[in-house]
Amino acid sequence: MAGHRFGHCAAQKSIEKAKNAKVTCARMFHAGDIRRLGAHAEVAARTGYIGINTLGIGNAASHQRVVPFDGAIGGLSANPIAVGAVMGGDILFVPDFAIGTVAEGKG
Predict the structure, then answer these.
(1) Which of 11, 15, 38, 91 has its CA 20 to 30 A from that of 54?
(2) Residue 74 half-sphere exposure, CB side, CA atoms within 13 Å?
(3) Mean pLDDT, to the nearest integer, of 51-80?
(4) Would you identify the CATH topology of the domain 2-103?
């Protein structure tokens, strides 16, 4: 659960920096399980910014990998991406994608 808290903190810090810089970037290392990456992009969208969040695992040999749809062995990182933006009024657009259906070790 630490990864989710770290992700929320990184989103909040990026939003604060974006108020002056217009564009910011945050990186996290050894954060653990992020949970729903789109939640952090949604935080940016709710404050009027566009949030683009990605997650890579670095050295795939030492981290969990996903099993592709209808596969038997995990070989790739999930490489999730989420984007949060305001469509108009209170309507948010937050697509949240990853390449697998269940992370290795969680199925």
Answers:
(1) 91
(2) 19
(3) 69
(4) Ribosomal Protein S8; Chain: A, domain 1 (3.30.1370)
